[in-house]
Amino acid sequence: METVLYLVRHGETVDNANQIMQGQTQGELNENGLRQARELGEQWKNREIDVVIASDLRRSVDTAAIIAAPHGLEVVMTPLLRERDWGGFTGRYIPSLKNEVWPDDIETLENLLSRAGEFIAYVKKTFPGKKVLAVGHGIINKAIQAVYYKMSMSDIQRMSNAEVRELVL
Length: 169
Prior knowledge:
alpha/beta; 35% helix; 5 strands
């Protein structure tokens, strides 16, 4: 039996709305993000979900908890789903970074893609044959899809907040 992974991006945060680079900070859902999570939870309340996983960052955990509640499921947290570590860019206004030299403390693309592959392997090994809903972040979710489809991250379309994509593992 196949494992189905429903990959979700967390709801909108205060920093998303203000174009602030969050990276591995906890983040906080804003009113729109809470609404997005509630709407997604409502849309998915009658769908079969066996497991709900989230990044261990607050914005993902809060989104996942809202979706998991109607199913009576606990949220399993993993740092494998954390957003890319943006190092010295963390907390900065995104449009102002356009022509800046990247600091040396940003998580490498190789490490990010490796973590994405580890996450896929973790889901396949730990939850075989299950329907797994996993709430992550924009860039790690892009990396997971790049590994899954064997494509470049630049070829993967950006996910909107509270968007879901299905991968059959």
